[in-house]
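Batch job 17 of 40 flagged for manual review because the log was empty.
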Amino acid sequence: MIPQAVILLGGKGTRIAARFPDLPKALVPVNGRPFLEWQFDWLRQNGIGQILLAAGHKADVLETYLASRPADGLRIRLSREPEPLGTGGALRYIEPLLTSDPVLVFNGDSLTPHLKFSTQWKNVSGFFHTMEEMFPHCGKLFATPIQDPGRYGTVEFGADGFVTAFREKAERESGHVNTGIYLLPRELIAAIPAGRAVSIETEIFPALVAQKKLAALPAPPPLLDMGTPDGLEAMEKFLRG
């Protein structure tokens, strides 16, 4: 089964908001197009057409944009969180709207363009089935190698694939970083505390690591992140080819 995709769009994008004060981060133009359209293209290329947007800041602008967007075969639904809930709280809030198990979750400001789910399997659904067989009832995050991790911090994992630690902004020359793409069983999402702000990165994932329930899946570089002015410039340069 091909999972439904969830894109987390609740953040304010404070590091680039001054340049685009009237736009949510997902609609910031990147190489002439709203960044969200680059994510839609990538999902379509990977055979994923059912998308749930977990929106927060400037959700009304997103709604207006989607209402005028030409139909292109994607099934897109937007859910507006009642208050800022963080990445984990937003996932828990939209859990009743999910239609697949597992669920593919994306941060709304990053792109890993060379990641193709069907590269080593006969088809896309075969990849997800294999991952569930390898790591049943576990969360999975995609991690990519990077030189000079800098502000990203690093993900450490063993030969068995299970994450052992997160090193926040550690001083090191290279390592693996979290791409912001996760494959999560519904049971893990349903277990997130409801009704309050929760961070996937700082609350949920460390708890899963302690239980040996979080695996790292390899993703080819680069990791493109438009959350900062420098990251936006680098992303535009890459997408221009």
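Reviewer: the log was empty due to a logging misconfiguration, but the result itself is present. The two ends are 33 Å apart (CA to CA). Unflagging and moving on to job 18.
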